[in-house]
């Protein structure tokens, strides 16, 4: 078994028409075996099988297929009349045909290499180039595909008589490659060194966004619209740009303005606009100033693919360009590609067999390192916006750093840590395709747990786990985590994005996070159970709605009533059901810390799963219970509706949802006014809701339940 791999390529890169090409990370592969019985009966001893793009259109007969036609031409030049007996060529082609990504260039290089291998011709890469150039006469694609990387090339004058010979197959003759006839004569052999190439440097941070429209433009057709002669000024325009561009693309960091200007062209793109609807407008629709991360844009090869070079924001740039095509009623696929530095590679025997049987990549298995890296770039700014003294919130390291002294903790503090998830509220976010607030819920679940112990949240880390990373969704999610961190005053110092194919369904993901907070040495860790006594006052802080607990029951009630998340909420005519349910959890950190710092609070309970009944006792000593008057606070409309629609008992209501209170606080009688003042001053609407009493059978006694009827 012989395996031949050739990358696709993008030619021209704007001004370098027929001169420069960039090999890119999609590979045509041939798996070749010789001596196969089934192949002996095939024309020219060669059986072709094919998988991948072009399967429906590509001819599988040796003298009609560009790869094998090319190979036959090379073999004939060396005295062979056919392939060795029993040759089987299995083609695996992921390169889209006729889109400007050098499928024909790759096929030609693969074809010459095929002849080199089966005919044991022992040709060097430079000699292989000579043969390629007889078949595809612009050197840009074949030189890049053969040598790999970012390549400039020129082709010496060929003998016009030789060029007309029918024995040479031509990669670009409408409607399909023609020539390569078996005339019985030896075809013209290329003179030595007809093509020269040089490899240019490429800055490692530059990636290639290929926007691939769903229609083909054959290179032959795209060349037929070009003029025979050019205006001198236009030629100078291109020469000036290409001279700078080849160096500019190797400089780190890349100079976006120079590259953008350097990728302008007057020699081929303007003439090809009639073949690609909206081409001029699409090329002008992005600039480095309007689209951060963009370096330049051009037609890839003869088109219709558009190639945008960028260092970040790949998904946004791609979606912008796809939308431009959409306005022309053209749908597109897109790929984020990298330079392929290896060019043509040939492997033999066990190694080729192993690669044929198990040519597996992490990307094939569903995990995209590129997407992960792109996400990191896309969220950097949002993450950095959460920086605070002691934590610079720069991601990309192996761990998140926190300098406690710089954060104001000069004596070793007591660290408090919390970990939690968003829970099934995420299901509503999936249904609404809205991830703009669930990150706030995630932060709230953690930091509200820290602050009830009297701790100031300092850092946060999130965990985002999915089967398939949808960058746009992940970015929205992390931006909302950053928003939550800002509300809590803590820095987002790191996180984990886990792409685990098969773990979750479709676009769904799970989200968790952990927060670290500190309490100054000498300051109390709350609750201060020892200081609590009968008669202490309970103050409640309103919730914003359901917060992040009890969503399994919420969804059940909504389902039972046949409501869809897109419908207007029966409890709030200004919002949809889904948007109302996604109202983020209130973050109480800043108001509560203001009161804690004045030593006004004895304890706090964050009302989460288990509601009032389970959470209030967590802050109380064993001998004290809480007596609450349920008429003293307002139940939000959404909870009222859910309770009634689900026919939920008062007890179940108080154990499942927060009933309208996100926080319950214990304050000594003498501190009540001061605490209320501080909380109001920080924007809260505190209400006196009850008091501490001697504990009886129930730790929490609710009075005035008729109010909930
Ligand atoms: N893997 C392949 N096997 C056989 N023929 C191919 C293959 N790839 C490309 N070709 C031939 O090349 C033609 C496309 O070439 P071209 O018009 O230059 O477009 P591109 O921009 O993709 O190179 C196809 O129609 C087909 O005839
Ligand atoms: N310089 C050629 C490049 C054609 O590339 P392809 O990928 O479209 O085959 C041209 O612009 O015609």
From TrEMBL:
Its EC number is 2.7.1.39, 6.3.3.1. Pathway: Purine metabolism; IMP biosynthesis via de novo pathway; 5-amino-1-(5-phospho-D-ribosyl)imidazole from N(2)-formyl-N(1)-(5-phospho-D-ribosyl)glycinamide: step 2/2; Amino-acid biosynthesis; L-threonine biosynthesis; L-threonine from L-aspartate: step 4/5. Keywords: Amino-acid biosynthesis, ATP-binding, Kinase, Ligase, Lipid biosynthesis, Lipid metabolism, Nucleotide-binding, Purine biosynthesis, Steroid biosynthesis, Steroid metabolism, Sterol biosynthesis, Sterol metabolism, Threonine biosynthesis, Transferase. Residues 259-326 form the GHMP kinase C-terminal domain. The keyword Iron does not apply. It comes from Neohortaea acidophila. SUPFAM superfamilies: GHMP Kinase, C-terminal domain, PurM C-terminal domain-like, PurM N-terminal domain-like, Ribosomal protein S5 domain 2-like. Commits homoserine to the threonine biosynthesis pathway by catalyzing its O-phosphorylation. Residues 65-149 form the GHMP kinase N-terminal domain. GO terms for molecular function: ATP binding; homoserine kinase activity; phosphoribosylamine-glycine ligase activity; phosphoribosylformylglycinamidine cyclo-ligase activity. Pfam families: AIRS (PF00586), AIRS_C (PF02769), GHMP_kinases_C (PF08544), GHMP_kinases_N (PF00288). GO terms for biological process: 'de novo' IMP biosynthetic process; adenine biosynthetic process; sterol biosynthetic process; threonine biosynthetic process. CDD domains: PurM. It catalyses: L-homoserine + ATP = O-phospho-L-homoserine + ADP + H(+). Belongs to the GHMP kinase family. Homoserine kinase subfamily. This is Homoserine kinase. One of its GO terms (cellular component) is cytosol. Residues 415-518 form the PurM-like N-terminal domain. Residues 533-702 form the PurM-like C-terminal domain.
